[in-house]
User: Which sequence fits this backbone?
């Protein structure tokens, strides 16, 4: 579970993860979707873990004179801010998981965006299996952004970079305009649902 | 409220990136506005509950209000890191630019076909995945002014500087469009199709480089 990398690298990962959590928390709320809320909790563990790891490595880097004290201090402070943002997302997702009924007006106020969040599995032999995100031009071709990839061994890659490879069996968590899910399902070798088009 | 808290976070990141006091001031303003809103929301929630069922849904409202407040506070905490001193300034921006979504600035040149059109017309977000956070515009008086809270009906003018957030690929598309004057449709097509002719290693690099020179 422990990634390699400098405290700075891990901080970026942590920031990406927290942004994903906020995104997911809002859409869990909007769709009243407990599965999405569960994802937020799953990612919270990752954020907590990253925070500890970043702070530990920041201190280590100071003792090895790779980082100045001010720099380590800034990194530590940033992790606290990012953690706060992640906690706020958890707080939001909790209302969904706990079956509390939000007033309809609230849901409407969040519902101004027309984008949706959806999962798709990369199938063997599909167009993008084995390609990197950059090679697939997925975002430009479908309008959907891949927010995270869940590997078959349960590893999360939040905010995947262009060089990230998509392998058969990977789960892609994506967000995009309403029609983008069909196009992405096609690229990953899944049949778009025929019912209520 | 959701918008305000997101703007606050975005502007905080931009403030750090551009070391721009205007941005941090704006984060402060957004937070004040948000405080006022949160107060009203809490008041309305308490006044609105007449029975247990009402009260239950109001608890949700209050919880979400506090979550939003927390996010906005975290955002202003980040901006305050700029005050630590000159040592912070060269160190902070790279921490944020390596993230998967980057923030960058684009100048609209006279050749751009987008001058006189609105952001909504261009469907920037739908077509390129890029979101416009703020625009810097020169007034008659030659004074530069920052505009925030950019909506679909925002009219683009020559010389505007757009602060955008999105992927490297989207950024490159917009840079060719706004700074070299290539029509948007062409740049999108170029980026989506052309690289497939090259070999695999090649276009990976093409996406990863080329931003921020």
Assistant:
């Amino acid at each position: 579970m422990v990634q390699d990398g400098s405290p700075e690298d891990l901080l970026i990962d942590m920031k990406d993860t927290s942004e994903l959590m906020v995104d997911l928390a809002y859409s869990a709320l909007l769709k009243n979707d407990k599965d999405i809320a569960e994802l937020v909790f799953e990612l919270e563990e990752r954020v907590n873990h990253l925070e500890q790891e970043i702070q530990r490595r920041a201190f280590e880097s100071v003792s090895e004179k790779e980082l100045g004290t001010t720099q380590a201090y800034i990194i530590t402070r940033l992790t606290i801010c990012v953690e706060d943002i992640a906690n706020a997302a958890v707080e939001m997702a909790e209302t969904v998981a706990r079956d509390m009924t939000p007033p309809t007006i609230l849901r409407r106020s969040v519902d101004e965006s027309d984008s949706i969040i959806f999962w798709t599995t990369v199938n063997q032999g599909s167009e993008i299996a084995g390609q990197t995100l950059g090679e697939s031009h997925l975002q430009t071709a479908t309008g959907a952004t891949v927010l995270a990839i869940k590997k078959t061994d349960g590893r999360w890659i939040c905010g995947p970079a262009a060089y990230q490879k998509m392998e058969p069996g990977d789960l892609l968590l994506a967000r995009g305009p309403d029609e983008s899910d069909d196009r992405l399902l096609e690229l990953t070798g899944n049949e778009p649902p025929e019912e209520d088009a | 409220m959701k918008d305000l808290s997101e703007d606050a976070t975005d502007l905080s990141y931009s403030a750090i990136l551009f070391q721009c006091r205007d941005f941090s001031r704006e984060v402060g303003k957004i937070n004040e506005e948000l405080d006022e809103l949160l107060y009203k929301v809490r008041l309305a929630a308490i006044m609105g509950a007449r029975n247990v069922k009402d009260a239950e849904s109001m608890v949700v409202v209050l919880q979400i209000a506090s979550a939003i407040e927390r996010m906005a506070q975290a955002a202003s905490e980040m901006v305050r890191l700029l005050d630590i001193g000159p040592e912070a300034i060269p160190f902070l921006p790279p921490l944020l630019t390596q993230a998967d979504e980057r923030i960058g600035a684009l100048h609209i040149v006279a050749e751009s076909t987008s001058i006189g059109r609105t952001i909504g017309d261009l469907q920037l977000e739908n077509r390129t995945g890029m979101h416009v956070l703020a625009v810097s515009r020169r007034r008659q008086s030659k004074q530069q002014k920052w505009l925030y809270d950019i909506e679909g009906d925002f009219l683009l003018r020559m010389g505007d500087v757009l602060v955008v957030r999105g992927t490297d690929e989207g950024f490159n598309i917009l840079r060719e469009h706004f700074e070299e004057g290539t029509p948007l449709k062409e740049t999108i097509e170029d980026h989506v199709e052309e690289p497939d002719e090259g070999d695999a290693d090649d276009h990976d690099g093409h996406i990863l480089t080329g931003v921020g020179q």
Remarks:
- Chain B has nine helices and four strands.
- Chain B touches chain A through 55 residues (CB under 8 Å).
- Residues 142 and 159 of chain B are 11 Å apart (CA to CA).
